[in-house]
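Hi all, long-time lurker, first post. I run a small reading group and we've been trying to get comfortable going from sequence to structure in the token notation. Rather than ask abstract questions, I figured I'd post a concrete chain and ask someone more experienced to write out its structure so we can walk through it together at our next meeting. Sequence below, copied exactly:
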Amino acid sequence: MKLPRFVGRTWLLDLGVMTVVAVAVLLPAREMYASSVFKGDDAQQFQAALAEARTMATPRDGMAVEELGRRLGDAGQRDWAVEATVHASDRAKDSPSRWRALLAASVAYIDRLDVVPALDYANRALTACHSAQEAGDAAACPSWEEIRMTLYQKHLDAGVKSGIDPRHDPNGFRKAGESALLQIHLGTGHDKERTGSASAHTGSASP
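-- Answer (accepted) --
Happy to help. Here is the structure in token form:
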């Protein structure tokens, strides 16, 4: 007796499902291997884990975020560094040291050559620094840190405005950034001696 076509197809489908289930049950389990995504020795992994734990224990501590970003950046974990510092800077709102967390996020973006968001976070860091100073907490963002950050922001701003992509022309981007800064060259004692000798030969007086 010939079975209906629909019944035959259903039976074949059931047989196929049963075969797949039997193979999955009877075959031995496959070995699985796991390794840490963190590149570095045990000491470096411990230091990074400790820095991350500090940001969780004291989310308002911008210096802890700065340390975490540096540890991850040194280990080559650029994406992780960006994610960690950006989230940590959000948690550090209303903290006098938030500028450090924002600056750490900017540096993390720079390591990934994402210059536009890097400039955005550098601007935010400067604003947070000024806010801390205006609130009467000058120690939270001392003037020398403000100057260092301002130079970094100006360098980055000039590079971004140049339109040069640092991924394709890193030297061009660097030179565009340097063009915005005042270059001060300090001569060595040997240079001063040569300058003095030249002045004597030309008959000019030296102070």
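A couple of things your group might point at:
Residues 184-207 have pLDDT under 50 and may be disordered.
The radius of gyration is 30 Å.
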